[in-house]
């Protein structure tokens, strides 16, 4: 299996989200932000200079201004067959160790004080120490953003739920292979494990005004047309 060509599509809006099944509200004293797998290997498969890429980078950038702990999940690249396990059967060998694959896209490069966990499966909780990091930070809520909504982002939200960490899956700060995949992930999460909301709603609930519109993001390299393997 490979990541298909990702065509431009409009990010989901608040009107398309299911009503919450629970009464969780983001709390700035309890919440952290997880930026999931925003590495060049994956982001390069999104359409350059168009939605959902442009909106994704803008909304994740605004989350970084909210004053919450920021955690990045990244894949290491160059994993052995044993390290990838069954992920290999679906996606092949995955990314290389080349920084052109592994590095987080320039607009979102981790800053001093940010946390980074290295992941080997879909979920950012699986064998990463993320659950312990959340305890160390004194946080029991997690806003999940990044790629891809129906794979790693959804798996991470479900694992957060399993660890009694309230997940918020942010509709316009995630992206996916297609709009249908994106909406399906949001609807499944809303019914089973998370609160889904837009970034603006999330920031407002925290008492943070949405950030001013940032400068245009750094130019992304075009998708190379290679077979993508990784299952972010």
Descriptive overview:
The protein is of the alpha/beta class. The protein has a 6-stranded parallel β-sheet. It starts with about 30 loop residues before the first strand and ends in a 26-residue tail after the last helix. It has helices at about 40-45, 55-65, 80-85, 85-90, 100, 130-135, 150-160, 180-190, 200-205; strands at about 30-35, 70-75, 115-120, 140-145, 165-175, 195. α7 packs parallel to α8 (about 180-190). The longest helix has 14 residues, at about 150-160. The radius of gyration is 16 Å and the shape is globular. α8 links the parallel β5 (about 165-175) and β6 (about 195). Residues about 210-230 have low confidence and may be disordered.
Largest sheet: 6 strands, parallel
Q: What is the alpha-carbon Rg in Å?
A: 16 Å
Order of adjacent strands in the largest pleated sheet: 3-2-1-4-5-6
- The SSE order reads EHHEHHHEHEHEHEH
Straight-line distance between termini: 13 Å
Number of strands: 6
Query: Share of helix among residues?
Result: 25-40%
- Assembly type: single chain
Mean pLDDT, to the nearest integer, reads 91
**Low-confidence segments, ≥5 residues, pLDDT <50?**
211-229
Structural class: alpha/beta
Strand content: 15-25%
Separate helix tally: 9
Large-scale geometry: globular
Topology of this protein?
Elements: E1 31-36, H1 40-43, H2 53-63, E2 70-74, H3 81-84, H4 87-91, H5 99-102, E3 115-118, H6 130-137, E4 141-147, H7 149-162, E5 166-175, H8 179-192, E6 195-197, H9 199-206
Parallel strand pairs: 1-2, 1-4, 2-3, 4-5, 5-6
Helix pairs in contact: 7-8
């Amino acid at each position: 299996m490979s990541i298909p060509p990702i065509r431009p599509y409009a990010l989901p809006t608040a009107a398309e989200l299911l009503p919450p099944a629970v009464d969780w509200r983001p709390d700035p004293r309890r919440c952290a932000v997880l930026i999931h797998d925003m590495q060049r290997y994956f982001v390069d498969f999104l359409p350059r200079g168009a939605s959902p890429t442009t909106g994704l980078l803008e909304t994740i950038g605004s989350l970084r201004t909210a004053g919450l702990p920021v955690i990045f999940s990244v894949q290491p690249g160059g994993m052995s067959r044993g390290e990838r396990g069954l992920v290999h059967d679906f996606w092949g060998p995955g990314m290389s160790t080349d920084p052109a694959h592994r590095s987080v896209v320039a607009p979102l490069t981790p800053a001093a004080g940010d946390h980074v966990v290295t992941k080997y499966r879909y979920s950012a909780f699986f064998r990463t120490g993320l659950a312990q990091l959340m305890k160390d930070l004194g946080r029991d809520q997690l806003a999940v953003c990044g790629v891809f909504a129906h794979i790693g982002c959804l798996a991470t939200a479900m694992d957060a739920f399993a660890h009694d960490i309230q997940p918020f899956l942010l509709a316009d700060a995630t992206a996916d292979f297609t709009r249908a995949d994106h909406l399906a992930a949001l609807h499944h999460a809303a019914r089973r494990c998370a609160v889904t909301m837009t970034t603006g709603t999330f920031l407002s609930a925290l008492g943070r005004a949405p950030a001013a519109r940032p400068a245009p993001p750094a130019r992304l390299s075009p998708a190379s047309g290679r077979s993508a393997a990784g299952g972010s």
